[in-house]
Amino acid sequence: MLVYVATLANLDTEGIVPTAHAVPMANAFRADQLRPSLEREEVMAAAPKSANGTFRVPKVIE
Asked: Could you count the other beta carbons within 10 Å of the beta carbon of residue 19?
């Protein structure tokens, strides 16, 4: 792996944009738009555990 990376480091990248791709790319994100959604109370009622309008989840970092 390190030998391969060293080989890549020897390539002439002058004039290459750091984010260039081999194929044309287009942004797939949609524009932010305010749309109707579920009511907070309805969502919290369906949650296994909630408190103060937020989801309660098990601790994963000790």
From this structure: 6
Say whether 59 sits in a helix, a strand or coil. Answer: coil
pTM: 0.41
Q: Give the tens place of pLDDT for each residue, 22-58.
A: 788 787 788 889 999 999 999 999 999 999 989 999 9
Cα angle, residue 46 at apex, residues 42 and 48 outer, rounded to 5° = 145
What is the residue extent of each domain of the chain? 36-62
- Bridge partners, 55 (sequence order): 50
Assess contact for 47 and 53: CB atoms under 8 A. no
User: In the numeric block, which tokens belong to residue 54?
Assistant: 């937020």
